[in-house]
Specification:
alpha+beta; Cytochrome Bc1 Complex, Chain D, domain 2; seven-stranded mixed beta sheet; five-stranded mixed beta sheet; 6 helices; 12 strands; about 25% strand; globular; binds heme C
Length: about 290
């Protein structure tokens, strides 16, 4: 697939937010906690069933932001260095998951910190959370003082998207997530995500990913192109030789179109959450870039 460097505009807008109108009708069931078996009554197009936290599952094949395949089974460990998208779904008696129409419910996610991207100005600081003994992750939002034409994703698209940057010093652990649901349904949900180590990268596969997806802008060996994008290989000062970068950051934050200090990347950098490359592909490309210094 050819790289797609042009920021798209058409599909950016999301459906109008109708939650205010629905909130007036919101005298429906109050369900506390993921383990509750209470069902909600359908209202305003909201499916019946038990609200649960669910995760989009088609990251390997396409658009993470628009997939409609989900699972609420969090028993498998999620490798650090990944980006996942969480939603509130409605579980049916046969175990299937239904999704509320756009705007019918409002979900505020908490647990991990929220990173607000920056424009890279010297006083903007570095919002990316430091790693520690337990897994590190964050939600991402756009700085409202940055012109929205520079955003890669809207805040609605980023809602529920979790960037898992590091497994923690012991190579794994859990991340506790909470969702506060309002609108047509009011409920609080929680989930505990098991995180495993950042997977090892394959330089062989990374060379293929790099030449097909990155070389046109960053140069054949990642050394950068004058008038194009910066060098990202292992030459001095570039990403792959910079100890403040890691495979976990490349696999997660770069797909969110920010750098390791939360700086919004130039819009020419493709919108990777919507393209069929996985975090593993990014980790592989980084592994190969670490072998290139020209
Ligand atoms: C259409 C052009 C384009 C393509 C394709 C592209 N990039 Fe970028 N990339 C950019 C631009 C523009 C920037 C912003 C930095 C700059 O001014 O060069 C950037 C920035 C980055 C940065 C941050 C650099 C830093 O110093 O902080 C990384 C890492 C990166 N790209 C990795 C990749 C990888 C990996 C691929 C392929 C999977 C890729 N890019 C494909 C244009 C592109």
């Amino acid at each position: 697939m050819a790289p797609q460097g042009v920021a798209r505009s058409g599909s950016r807008a999301r459906g109008a937010f109708v939650s205010l109108a629905l909130a007036a009708l919101a005298s429906v069931a109050l369900v506390i906690g993921c383990s509750s078996s209470s069902s909600t009554s359908p209202s305003g197009g909201i499916p019946s069933g038990t609200p649960v936290i669910a995760m989009a599952t088609v990251a390997a094949t396409g658009n993470l932001l628009e997939t409609n395949t989900y699972t609420s089974d969090f028993t498998s460990a999620i490798p650090a260095g990944n980006v996942i998208r969480l939603v509130v779904a409605f579980k049916q008696s046969d175990g299937s998951l239904d999704i509320a129409p756009a705007g019918a419910i409002k979900v505020a996610w908490s647990g991990p910190p929220v990173v607000v991207n920056t424009d890279g100005s010297p006083d903007a600081g570095d919002p990316i959370p430091a790693t520690g003994s337990t897994p590190t992750s964050f939600w991402l939002q756009n700085d409202p003082s940055i012109p929205s034409s520079l955003y890669h994703y809207s805040n609605d698209e980023l809602n529920g998207v979790l960037f898992i940057t590091d497994p923690g010093a012991s190579g794994g652990g859990t991340i506790d997530i909470a969702a506060s649901v309002t609108g047509g349904v009011t409920t609080q949900l929680t989930a505990s995500l098991t995180i495993s180590a950042v997977p090892a990268g394959s330089a062989t596969h990374g060379a293929q990913v790099y030449s097909a997806q990155c070389a046109v802008c960053h140069g054949p060996t990642g050394g950068g192109i004058d008038g194009g994008a910066v060098g990202i290989n292992a030459a001095a000062g570039n990403v792959a030789s910079d100890p403040t970068w890691s495979a976990g950051l490349v696999g997660s934050v770069v797909r969110g179109d920010i750098d390791n200090q939360g700086v919004l990347l130039d819009p020419a950098m493709p919108e990777w959450l919507e393209l069929p490359l996985t975090s593993q592909d990014f980790i592989d490309a980084y592994t190969w870039l670490q072998t290139q210094s020209q």
